[in-house]
Amino acid sequence: MRFKDSLRLYFVMGSQDCPGENPVEVLKQAIQGGITCFQFREKNSRLNGRETVELGKELQKICREHNIPFIVNDRVDLALILDATGVHIGQEDLPADEVRRLIGPDRILGVSAETLEEARRAFADGADYIGVGPMFSTSSKPDAGEPVGPAAVRHIRQQMGHRYPIVGIGGITPDRAPEVVGAGADGVAVISAISKASSPLGAAKQFLQLMGNSTKL
Ligand SMILES: Cc1ncc(COP(=O)(O)OP(=O)(O)O)c(N)n1
Ligand SMILES: Cc1nc(C(=O)O)sc1CCOP(=O)(O)O
Ligand SMILES: [Mg+2]
């Protein structure tokens, strides 16, 4: 499977995203439901460094057992400690070209991009894929800006062509996912619609069912 195909249903989660639930169980269910990639995003959480590494190891093990790419958000140090598949960084994080140097050629590098200029720069700096968002309003990331909508994906895709992997993120629910892939994204990245669903397994299934064979422009 090409990495691009792993972006179809990209689940992003940290312990802060599933209050009252065990993140390990949430991830297991999401995998049963069919997620294709996972990002460990421990952000403003209550865990200390050691607890973060311990949780990361548990989640990484489950991903390995199911052949799911395991991406670490923001932290190159944690990605290296966990021997992660890759790392995802945003525009306010370390520069993408420096991160590429640190992680080497074989790990996956994801970079957030809102505009065509940021998208071009990300790929020039060594990104394997970009995360474009927020697609819709979101309560999972208080510092996310105004929604850029699927139109931002459409614009980047039309200008850059089909070679570049793109995932939409932010406020995406199963019923809105087809708009995002219809605009040209390879897939959707999702926190709360899976982590806070009464059944993460059912939610993941619903995403895949509704996206069906929705194709890119
Ligand atoms: C797949 C994906 N896309 C975008 C983001 C957002 O990254 P960033 O802008 O650095 O914000 P934080 O996630 O660090 O709050 C992402 N994490 N994943
Ligand atoms: C982590 C993240 N990044 C965003 C961006 O726009 O770059 S929006 C976002 C939060 C996504 O969570 P939910 O699926 O619950 O809306
Ligand atoms: Mg970040």
UniProtKB/TrEMBL annotation:
Molecular-function annotations in GO: magnesium ion binding; thiamine-phosphate diphosphorylase activity
Catalysed conversion reaction: 2-[(2R,5Z)-2-carboxy-4-methylthiazol-5(2H)-ylidene]ethyl phosphate + 4-amino-2-methyl-5-(diphosphooxymethyl)pyrimidine + 2 H(+) = thiamine phosphate + CO2 + diphosphate; 2-(2-carboxy-4-methylthiazol-5-yl)ethyl phosphate + 4-amino-2-methyl-5-(diphosphooxymethyl)pyrimidine + 2 H(+) = thiamine phosphate + CO2 + diphosphate; 4-methyl-5-(2-phosphooxyethyl)-thiazole + 4-amino-2-methyl-5-(diphosphooxymethyl)pyrimidine + H(+) = thiamine phosphate + diphosphate
Alphabetical UniProt keywords: Magnesium, Metal-binding, Thiamine biosynthesis, Transferase
Pfam family, one: TMP-TENI
Keyword Metal-binding (UniProt): yes
Family according to the record: Belongs to the thiamine-phosphate synthase family.
Name of the protein in question: Thiamine-phosphate synthase
Source organism per UniProt: Lihuaxuella thermophila
Gene designation per UniProt: thiE
